[in-house]
Amino acid sequence: MRLLPLSFAYPCYVGHYCCVGRLHRMSMGFIAYSLLYSIAKGDVFGKDQPIILVLLDIPPMLPVLDGVVMELQDCALPLLREVIPTDKVEVGFKDLDAAILVGSMPRKEGMERKDLLKANVAIFKAQGAALEKYAKKTVRVLVVGNPANTNCLIASKSAPSIPKENFSCLTRLDHNRARSQVAMRCGVPADAVKNVIIWGNHSSTQYPDVHHAMVNVHGKEVEAYSAVKDDSWLKGDFISTVQLRGAAVIKARKLSSAMSAAKAICDHMRDWWFGTLDGEFMSMGVYAGGNSYGIPEDLIYSFPVHIKNKSWNIHDGLPVNDFSRAKMDATAAELVEERDTALSFLSQ
Ligand code: LMR
């Protein structure tokens, strides 16, 4: 039996910080809604881990949360001991073991990127401060709301007594997208592809890299470049497809990714809790301090990581060619700019 405390809670934001019923706002709600069932039935934190779910939202959303609570009760899930809907941070963040911060201020029509960052700095500063004040010091925090990397950095800076290593942002969705693209191209199941990497920002500058990926073709592990046999696709359309996939889903669905985002959140948290498989790494946005890839420190940057005992380590020593170097640096440069703008608001 795993010895985790019973108070095992998640603030999940169902819709957030947006007054009008824009599709984007609704879709953030869809992510949390898609996520709750998997967590509550034990797919993420284990089949013997009792769970208390805390659902934190803004006051106008409380009636909606009541409906979600009813549905969770109606699922009759044995692990789910309590669901706490609240609009109060002192309740929402109290004694948390894991925090999944799904909501953020979405970009509204005519909004400058700088204004978007400013609004999100205010949100993630407040959430970081609430984590600092109310959560356990061992809490593991996953930031999903965009711009996820920089929001995560701000939350971490606002919670100085919680180790930086306890903060991460979601790039597992991009990782899964890359894995699946290669698998479809090779005609193999998605789990036959391993060790793709997402470097950098969860934005269109991210670098999906398959130079170190392996594909299991008819029982034999082959390097992705040999399995795909189309270098120009791997260096061109593959990269842009993954980089722009979120926008393509929004264009088609008129809503942003929810099912796949929730699945990626579950993958990310499950691996953080139970570890990655031997010989495999996963992509995760983590604190860049002390990395061996020459990425500027004091960023939340997506790296290949191994996880053991709930601690991640960047997979070091992968050779980086000129093609990759340029793309890793370009996404780092975007993050430096985002960080510097965000920090100028943080100090105001
Ligand atoms: C995604 O990657 O699907 C989302 O981050 C896109 C978005 O802007 O919501």
UniProtKB/TrEMBL annotation:
<keyword id="KW-0520">NAD</keyword>
<dbReference type="InterPro" id="IPR001252">
    <property type="entry name" value="Malate_DH_AS"/>
</dbReference>
<feature type="binding site">
    <location>
        <position position="113"/>
    </location>
    <ligand>
        <name>substrate</name>
    </ligand>
</feature>
<dbReference type="InterPro" id="IPR036291">
    <property type="entry name" value="NAD(P)-bd_dom_sf"/>
</dbReference>
<keyword id="KW-0816">Tricarboxylic acid cycle</keyword>
<dbReference type="InterPro" id="IPR011274">
    <property type="entry name" value="Malate_DH_NAD-dep_euk"/>
</dbReference>
<comment type="similarity">
    <text>Belongs to the LDH/MDH superfamily. MDH type 2 family.</text>
</comment>
<dbReference type="GO" id="GO:0006108">
    <property type="term" value="P:malate metabolic process"/>
</dbReference>
<keyword id="KW-0560">Oxidoreductase</keyword>
<comment type="function">
    <text>Catalyzes the reduction of aromatic alpha-keto acids in the presence of NADH. Plays essential roles in the malate-aspartate shuttle and the tricarboxylic acid cycle, important in mitochondrial NADH supply for oxidative phosphorylation. Catalyzes the reduction of 2-oxoglutarate to 2-hydroxyglutarate, leading to elevated reactive oxygen species (ROS).</text>
</comment>
<feature type="binding site">
    <location>
        <position position="120"/>
    </location>
    <ligand>
        <name>NAD(+)</name>
    </ligand>
</feature>
<feature type="binding site">
    <location>
        <position position="57"/>
    </location>
    <ligand>
        <name>NAD(+)</name>
    </ligand>
</feature>
<dbReference type="GO" id="GO:0030060">
    <property type="term" value="F:L-malate dehydrogenase (NAD+) activity"/>
</dbReference>
<feature type="binding site">
    <location>
        <position position="107"/>
    </location>
    <ligand>
        <name>substrate</name>
    </ligand>
</feature>
<feature type="active site" description="Proton acceptor">
    <location>
        <position position="202"/>
    </location>
</feature>
<feature type="domain" description="Lactate/malate dehydrogenase N-terminal">
    <location>
        <begin position="29"/>
        <end position="167"/>
    </location>
</feature>
<feature type="binding site">
    <location>
        <position position="146"/>
    </location>
    <ligand>
        <name>substrate</name>
    </ligand>
</feature>
<dbReference type="InterPro" id="IPR001557">
    <property type="entry name" value="L-lactate/malate_DH"/>
</dbReference>
<dbReference type="Pfam" id="PF02866">
    <property type="entry name" value="Ldh_1_C"/>
</dbReference>
<dbReference type="GO" id="GO:0006099">
    <property type="term" value="P:tricarboxylic acid cycle"/>
</dbReference>
<feature type="binding site">
    <location>
        <position position="177"/>
    </location>
    <ligand>
        <name>substrate</name>
    </ligand>
</feature>
<dbReference type="InterPro" id="IPR022383">
    <property type="entry name" value="Lactate/malate_DH_C"/>
</dbReference>
<feature type="domain" description="Lactate/malate dehydrogenase C-terminal">
    <location>
        <begin position="171"/>
        <end position="345"/>
    </location>
</feature>
<dbReference type="InterPro" id="IPR010945">
    <property type="entry name" value="Malate_DH_type2"/>
</dbReference>
<dbReference type="InterPro" id="IPR001236">
    <property type="entry name" value="Lactate/malate_DH_N"/>
</dbReference>
<protein>
    <recommendedName>
        <fullName>Malate dehydrogenase</fullName>
        <ecNumber>1.1.1.37</ecNumber>
    </recommendedName>
</protein>
<dbReference type="Pfam" id="PF00056">
    <property type="entry name" value="Ldh_1_N"/>
</dbReference>
<dbReference type="InterPro" id="IPR015955">
    <property type="entry name" value="Lactate_DH/Glyco_Ohase_4_C"/>
</dbReference>
<feature type="binding site">
    <location>
        <begin position="144"/>
        <end position="146"/>
    </location>
    <ligand>
        <name>NAD(+)</name>
    </ligand>
</feature>
